[in-house]
Amino acid sequence: MVYEKREIFAEGKELRGYTVAAPKASEWNEAALTDDEPVDYVGILNRALPLDIRVLGWCPVPLGFHARFSCLSREYKYFFINSELDVDAMRKASKSFLGDHDFRNFCKMDAKNVHNYRRTIIAFDIFPVETGFMRSNIWVMQVKGSAFLWHQVRCMAAVLLMVGYGYESPSVVQELLDLSITPRKPQYAMASEFPLVLHACAFDNLTFQCSPEATNQVRLHLENLMGQEFIKTAIFQDGLPSVVLSRPKTMLKRTHIPLQLHETEPTYEERRLSKSKAT
Predict the structure, then answer these.
(1) pTM of the model
(2) CA distance 212 to 223
(3) Cα–Cα distance for residue pair 119/100, rounded to 1 Å
């Protein structure tokens, strides 16, 4: 079967009671879609998707299901290089995230559409990644919550990295969560989006499935991509001896201004007032 990207989501076909995306023109043999021969949705979609996107499973869902609003919890992973970071201080600071808090100082505020900034963090952990390559240096922040605000995880990661580098005290997280201490969000750069992964979403009474053949294909595809990235890393590593630092690495750290001394952003109330005046 030949798929064209521009047509893949052009129309839906009803297959044994489930609506799926399919090309407008294809060699799909509907007569062959029997209960004895289940449709390999994972294989079909993965043959149409870009190389860096893969479907891992599929599941029939009830009417009214919503991938966002039916989600019970979400788990993110944020990968980082542990270059002399104080991980114990980062872990201590991350404990303040646990529970129900107002996270308006840890997000990009959307005062027009979001009016409740309280979110619940269920778990937060920081640990090394067992990859077999640079094993002692690659770490991950793993955070699980019922829901998250816009760029919340990247803001949380940014502040924890400041703590890890010794720029901020672990108490800075509690200070930013306490609106009586920090009523306005200090301006600071979010952590990069590249290492952020939406790792898992929990749903009630859903069981995802994937054919053995599609599972093997996904596994081989990911191993191939991983091998390519390892080769790229080896190339960069091979070039490092040619670049000699003119100063010791410890002297290259940037000057840090404490977060509580940064310029601040408008509060939620100020943003709402400004929008009402504009209209």
Answers:
(1) 0.80
(2) 17
(3) 6
